[in-house]
Amino acid sequence: VRRLHSDEDAQILPRPPVVTVMGHVDHGKTSLLDALRQTSLAAKEAGGITQHLGAFVVGMQSGAPITFLDTPGHAAFSAMRARGAAVTDVVVLVVAADDGVMPQTLEAMSHAKAANVPIVVAINKCDKPDATPERVKVQLASEGLPLEEMGGDVQVVEVSATNKSGLDQLEEALLLQAELMDLKARINGPAQAYVVEARLDKGRGPLATAIVKAGTLVCGQHVVVGCEWGRIRSIRDMARKVIPQATPAMPVEIEGLKGLPMAGDDIVVVESEERARMLSEGRRKKHEKDRLLKLEE
Ligand code: GDP
What pTM value is reported for the model? Predict the structure, then answer.
């Protein structure tokens, strides 16, 4: 009998990129995410009605999916990173074509650099009469961003979240970036996953939007999520369809946790409820101890 779980049985396959949108306040991060979300499968299946679930997927139909984290801004990116959740593969740096490079644009650039995450630039608001995308490119280049059209490797796309123009080009640029990065994941075996958002539903209890990093998360499994635990009662895709299991980079909503986890919490599969309780209790104690130590400082 061949043994499972050996390295040679690991199935490594290409996976979709996970993208975070960053940039200066009011440059259109939320609007761009809204525009992209409206093209997602969930939006199509729900007849245009979309809900903020922490992540969404575009391009499912074409078989070239891209997962977007639906929380714009640096705080979310940093919080996730601080908790060890390196989920983002590519940063979309949104810069308003009329406003140009601003302090938080530079901050986003340095966050991405520190995390070693490549940037694709989206020059937004190109519909505006006072838009000067060329000026923005010069500014970015002078801040040390090696733009493709100047011989570097950072792609730039001109978009308008308002007119929904340039979105296809942005998606193409992200897929090209993903291809260059040769993103792959082990798809069989126990799952390693992260929470990107969690909320309490009156009827269904704690719900967590999760992204699997590696392996497969299966309905019925016992899990520890941060300091919480539970047994997965259902897994749904972003169109809210019940699915039996979740594979890498596809956001899913999981139900069955006993408490509310936090964005950035890791999800670990364990073999029994007893083990799940023990591990979460241990983590809770450690968490509390760390908190008290911090207070003393
Ligand atoms: P955020 O703070 O980066 O999330 O920016 P928002 O998405 O909230 O956008 C800030 C403002 O810019 C809002 O009034 C938007 O309607 C406007 N805006 C966003 N994108 C565009 C665009 O492509 N064109 C124009 N003309 N206005 C935009």
Answer: 0.92
